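Recap from last week: sequence in, structure out.
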Amino acid sequence: MQNTQPVKRIFTFTLALLAAAALFCVLVYAVLVAVHLSGPATDTVYGLTTQRFWASAAVVLGLIALAIGGLALGRPASRFGPISGRIGAIVALVVGLIAAVNGGLVLAIANGGPGTGNGVVGGAAAVVLGLIALSIGGLALGRSRRTS
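Predicted structure tokens:
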């Protein structure tokens, strides 16, 4: 009989990844509904606008904060360079806060829903990613204080 552990692990990982992506989409839509910007656009704008660029930059900051927070949470201090440990947790907190605030500002100045060129989907995604990065950075900071 063959060993089916790798197949089960890949299937479990894929299923968890799909569940996380679905949860992320639900959270982004919940943010859009909460700020009353979930209605479709009457005139769709194609291409990159300044607000879409701002929202995309905030999303990239949120992803960077999430990655740094994950490294700080998963690795002990100075094992993965300067990004792990206490400094990595603080960087994740600061960058996550910047991403969440910028996403909130994009949503605050937007005057239309998705497709209007205001970057509302990116702003909502930045808020969600920033808040997740803040929580992971806080967990990593708490863990680094306990081990020190």
